[in-house]
Specification:
- The structure is a homodimer of 350-residue chains.
- With 350 residues, the first copy, chain A, is mainly α.
- Chain A has one domain (23-343): Orthogonal Bundle (Farnesyl Diphosphate Synthase).
- Chain A is 68% helix and 1% strand.
- Chain A contains 17 helices and two strands.
- Chain A has a two-stranded antiparallel ribbon with strand order 1-2.
- In chain A, β1 and β2 form a beta hairpin.
- In chain A, α4 (75-86) runs antiparallel to α5, α5 (92-116) runs antiparallel to α7 and α5 runs antiparallel to α9.
- The termini of chain A are close together.
Amino acid sequence: MAGAGLTRDAPMSPEKTTTATCKPARVSLPIADLLADIADDLAQAARIFRTELRSDNPYVAELSSYVENFRGKQIRPALVLLSAQACGGIRPAHHVLAAVVEMVHIATLVHDDVLDEADLRRRTSTVSRRWGNESAVLLGDLLFSHAFRLCSSLDSQFASQEIGRTAVALCGGELRQVGTAGRLDLCEDEYFAIITGKTASLIGTCCLLGAHYAGADSHITRRLAAFGQSLGTAFQITDDLLDLVGDEGVVGKSLGRDVDKGKLTLPLIHALRSAEPGRRAELLALLRSDTPDRHRAITRILLQTESIAYAQQAAGRLVREAVAMLDDLPETPARATLCAMAQFVIARQR
Amino acid sequence: MAGAGLTRDAPMSPEKTTTATCKPARVSLPIADLLADIADDLAQAARIFRTELRSDNPYVAELSSYVENFRGKQIRPALVLLSAQACGGIRPAHHVLAAVVEMVHIATLVHDDVLDEADLRRRTSTVSRRWGNESAVLLGDLLFSHAFRLCSSLDSQFASQEIGRTAVALCGGELRQVGTAGRLDLCEDEYFAIITGKTASLIGTCCLLGAHYAGADSHITRRLAAFGQSLGTAFQITDDLLDLVGDEGVVGKSLGRDVDKGKLTLPLIHALRSAEPGRRAELLALLRSDTPDRHRAITRILLQTESIAYAQQAAGRLVREAVAMLDDLPETPARATLCAMAQFVIARQR
C-alpha cells in the first residue's frame, strides 16, 4: 500500500467521530497531500536539520547523514508548523523547532533500535545493524546534543526549557516501560502513564511550541498542548496496534516486538482483564512461552475478545478529545489540517 | 592506595614543572584535602543533582539514585566552583552548573559502560551489568536530558548554549574515536582531535562557565577555558596511560580496554612511529593478535621505547601550559588550588 493513504471519511475506530467542532468534510489523503501547504516549510526545517549535523569528520558526517533515511511521516515537525499556522503564522523560530523535534525523535529511534536489536527501520538497515551498537549509542547522543544546541540558539529560553522538560518525560517513560517488562499484571493506568511519557509528551510539546512561538496567548497554547497530548496518546495506541495486527511489509519494521520484549500494550491488558478464564489462561500461556509462531495465536485471541476494537475505540475517543481542543481557534485551513492529522494518526497502516 | 593521594611536589612527568607562575609550595594531598575549601559547595551541588533526578516511579528512582555511586573525584564540578572562586566568587548558578557538568559526565560514563561491556565502574557494578543495556542506554539519555533541563532553568541562556555546544563536541569526539578503532596508522593529530572532543571540551567548559557566571571579563573567561582545555587533554592522556600501566585494584575499573577495542593511545602511537623495525613488528603482531596475555607484553615494549615517558611528558607540558593561563588572576587560594588540581590530574593513580 503506497503512501499510507486514508480514503475514508472516518478513522479506523468503529465509533463515529464528531464533526461538530471540526469539518474536514472528506479526508482523502496520503500524508504528503495533507502536508502540501507546509511542504516548503518542512523543506526549510530539513535544511536546518542537515546543516546542524554537518561534520568535518568523514565518519561522523556519514552517520549523521544516514539518519536522513529515518525521516518518515514527519508528524512532529508538521505539528509544530501547522500549530503555528493555526495560531498566527509560521516564523523563522518554527523552522528551527521543527528540526529540533525531529532530531529528538530520531535520536530516540536510533537508541530504540539498539535496544530492540532491530534490523530494519523505515525499510532501511538500522544504524546499530550497519555500524554496531557502539556507534548507534553515540549517534543517538550526538543527535540529542545537536537538538539541545540548536534549541539554545533561539532568542528565548522557553524552547530549551520545554525541550529539556520533554526529554526528561520521554526518557523517563521509556525507562518506566523497561521497568515493567515481563509484568503480566500491568494495568491500564500504568500503560497510559508510560505512553504519555514516551510519546505524548513530545507530540504535545510540538503543538505547544508551535502555538507559543506564533504568539498565541496562554489559553490557546495550553489547548494546543492538550490537542498534541491526546493525539500523541492515540498515536502510540495505534503504533502498538500495528505491532500486533499490522502488515510487516507495509509498516516497514519488524513486528511482534512488544510481545517478544514482554511489553503489554492496550489490547493485551484489556484481554487479560476481560477474557473468560479459559481464554485468559490460554493467552497467559502464550505470553509465557517463547514459541516463534505465537504471534498469530495471540492476535486471534485479541480479535475474539474484541480487544483490538477496544484499543481502536480508545484511540478514536482520544482523537475526538484532541479535536475538541481546537474549538477556540479560527476556522482556517491549518486548523482543518490539524483535524485531518488527528484522523490520520489512527487511520494509518504504518 | 587510599584516596589517590599525591605526596610529591612534582607531577609524574619526568620533566620539571615551572613554579614561576604558580606556587602551590608543596602539593601534599589526597583530592579530598584539595577540595576542602569548596566541600560545602560540592555538597550543595550534590543536593541539586539528587533533587533534579527525583522520580515518582520506583524503577526510575532506583536507577537514578544508583548513579550516585559513580561520583568519583568530582573534578568537573570542582573546576566550575574553583574557577568561580578564582574569578570573583561562587554564586547560586555555579552550584547548578556543577550539578549539570557532573550529570553530563555521568551520562557518558553510563553509556561508555554499555559500549565497553564493562563490569566495574568505581568498584561498583555498572548499570548495564546490573539492569541490562536497555536500561543503561535509557538512563544515560535521562541523565543528558536532566542536565539540559537543569541548565535551561538558569536566568541566562549562555549555559545552555555552552553545554549544548560541548555535548556536540563530546559525542562527536567519542564517535570519531569509534570510527578510527582498529586503525593502527592513527596519527598524533587525530588522537589529539579525539581527546579534545571527548574530554577536554567538557573540562574546558567547566572552567569557562565558572569564570563567566562569576562575572569575569571575556579575556579572563577565555584564559580559564584554555586552562581547562589543556588540563582536560592532560587528564585524558593520563587516563589512557592508566589503562596501559595502571593497577586495576587502584584504578577501580577493568584495564587494557583501549587495546582490546582497537583504540590507539599516545604511547602506542609514539611506539609505532619511533620503535626500531623489529620491535615495531613485534608490537604490530601483538596488537593484531587477541591473546589474553598480550597486555603485559605490550606494556613491556612501551617501556623499552620510552613511549610511556613520552606520553607523561606530553601531559606534563600541557599542565604547565594550563597553569600559565592563570597568570592574570590574582594570587588567591582558589588559584593555588586550581594549580594543584592541574598537578593532580597527571599525578593521580586512578
